[in-house]
Structure prediction request, 183 residues.
Amino acid sequence: MKTSGIILATAVFILIVAVFFIEVIAPSMDWSAAARPGFVENFIADRVIDGWVGRHASDQENPIAGTPENLKAGQDSYRENCAGCHGLDGSGRNQFDAEFYPPVANLTEDAGQMTDGQIYFIIAKGIRYSAMPSFEGNYNRDQIWRLVSWVRHLPHLSQGEKADLVTEMRAQLEHHKAASAAH
Prediction:
């Protein structure tokens, strides 16, 4: 009987501390997307997202062949839906010159650490509270796999492809800055 009282008191204490943190401490912290989060927030967010993707994504390899036609279709979808945040070259330099937290993934580096199935899963499902939307409601499986093909191609862009994309990115950024200044 004494043990159950100690357990109950401990549970109540933990609940009070949690409520105090959520209601008093956390709202006084800087939650701005421009602020860098602390170690604990990074640690928890990374573990939760990595665990979620790792548990639910398949290990399937991309069933869509990397033909020029499929790469072009993937690039077109990427340009329309992904480049605004990830940059035309996948570098994570967004077209809005804005701060994101969590930071926008650098697809030329980060995607190399994932399986095709994990990349597919993230594109299809999105990631809550990260600005990464879900595309499975608007795209069929083959379209998403073509996006995976293009993401896999990004680290292997030729020097000419990179130069063209960087020039286009600079032009888009200048256009965005001019439009922002006009408002």
